[in-house]
Amino acid sequence: MGAEVAAWHSSANAYLVVWQSNGNVWARPFLSTGTPLNPAFAVSTANGITPAAQPAVARIPGSSAFMVAWNQWGWAMNSPILARTATVTGPEGDVLPIAGQPTAVLPHHADNSAIICR
């Protein structure tokens, strides 16, 4: 099973859809009708050397934000999982290191959160 690429957040009244393209992780919010709410925005910051891949998204309970996590491909076994919060208007805060040398980002369907494994 792959990671979640879309998450519904009732506080934001929107889905956030994430994907990887050209070495970055992108996100775009959609209303429940499928209508785009805002333009797509980059969540990760590509450095041209280690592309971002395998994005996952989950809502953050008690706020109108989402957490987006991804694998930042590196050399050999040095591929950390990074994360950043985002809202329907764009990314917020800094990119945070979550784990080094990950093996999986798994959805936890009971509460739409994500489990990050090393």
Count of distinct strands:
10
Largest sheet: 4 strands, antiparallel
Residue share in β-strands:
over 45%
Low-confidence blocks of residues: none
Shape: globular
> What string, H for helix and E for strand, traces the elements in order?
EEEEEEEEEE
- Helix run count: 0
Question: How many structural domains can be distinguished in the coordinates?
Answer: 1
Structural class: mainly beta
Describe the structure.
The protein has no helices and ten strands. With 118 residues, the chain is mostly beta strands. It has one domain (6-117). The strands form three sheets. It has a four-stranded antiparallel beta sheet, with no helix packed on it. A four-stranded antiparallel beta sheet has the order 5-6-7-8, with no helix packed on it. A hairpin with a 2-residue loop joins strand 2 (14-21) and strand 3 (24-30). The relative contact order is 0.21. The mean pLDDT is 80.
